[in-house]
């Protein structure tokens, strides 16, 4: 165990010889034998064996496709729930306030996404590093990691409102919104920005559960939140109490706080196999926190690289319009296109969330062929889902638009935008596939660069190109998203060529070693 302790002092490096030796020690005959050989006479280590054996079963005890599918339930429920938050809010605001309310939410939607981006950053940091620690036999260090990431939620909860609140109104006016829409949008964002810490905690707790492979509980938390939001709090605050657009914000906040409190209580109440301690909240950060943040940082860049260009898209769509009423309809239509598209993207992100812990575990345990199979399955699942959503949105865009709002002016914008934004859906998941592969391989810097190119750079460049080649057609600007999906294929191949080539080489060596062992066993018999 001395070699393991020494290796932890070095930066995460998949070719580091000391880590390789440690992984070989715990993976040659499985974690169960390693624990039993050294700790048969200790009750605490029996508990550790149970934890690790359960973890092995969830992340490495099934065939690759079954592993992906078994881990997919929770992320699908979580991501679809997150997408439904926006749809549910739009529906209830449309009923209670009308098209002005929908337009005000659309004007501020990108800023809401910026706040949530920090939560997804911590969720990916948690799920990736927790799985990696289990793969290396270091499950007893997960508790400190959880406590450290919770403290980061509080830090981001202070940073987000400090950045967003001063710029919300100036940005809304810059888009071209009338003053009524500006004020209504600010009223909507004020509570959400102020309670950013609760959003970060809600999303991060999902990452904790996903990192352990607890997909059912992960999904249960998400479903409970959306049911509370959709069926109880939104109608209560908007229709019964008539709180105005603030009611939509508080409904979202409360529906995230309650599940977070319950699951954190279970964690610190020693109800799960991983047991963080309250005292760890006041200790210095553990050795695995910084590496986890480096890996998760690529997810933050990915989220911000999507949200920030949305601000630019809104601006240039607004610049094609000279009428305030048309602007309101255009923003409402754009909001509907984003909301519907978010449902498509939800599954791509869910597949990535299911892939990351399983692939991180496989890579840490030197199961390279398994890593490649997991990646292949995640790619074809995303492709199949993209084909379905493309056909679906092309078939009934008008009907989908009517679910969220109504009005002839609104439909003139919403219907074509819904069709355009999903037009290359079959390849839209490539961005998530490539980024999650880098994250699972602990290539945080490469994942960050890839996220920046596949999202921020591409969307901004295509937005400018589409606007300056035709300054009168705002709907046409939405083509920036399908064009970005196509470009991401090129960037992904370039950035993953060398890492995947190395994995393929190691997988071949792994296969040869297994074949040699089989021949030795046959000769011995």
From TrEMBL:
Q: Where in the cell is it found?
A: Cell membrane
**Topology relative to the membrane, per the entry?**
Multi-pass membrane protein
| TM annotation in the entry | 68-93, 113-137, 149-168, 188-209, 216-241, 247-269, 345-364, 376-396, 449-467, 479-497
InterPro entries in alphabetical order: MATE_fam, Membrane_Transporter-Flippase
Q: What is its main location?
A: membrane
Supply the CDD domains for this chain. Answer: MATE_like (cd12082)
Write one Gene Ontology MF term. Answer: xenobiotic transmembrane transporter activity
Keywords of the record, alphabetical order, are: Cell membrane, Membrane, Transmembrane, Transmembrane helix, Transport
Q: Does the keyword GTP-binding apply?
A: no
Provide the coiled-coil residue spans. none
Q: One Pfam match, by short name?
A: MatE
- Keyword Cell membrane listed: yes
A GO cellular component annotated for this chain's UniProt record is: plasma membrane
Family classification:
Belongs to the multi antimicrobial extrusion (MATE) (TC 2.A.66.1) family.
Can you say what this protein is called?
MatE family protein
What is the protein's species of origin? Tritrichomonas foetus
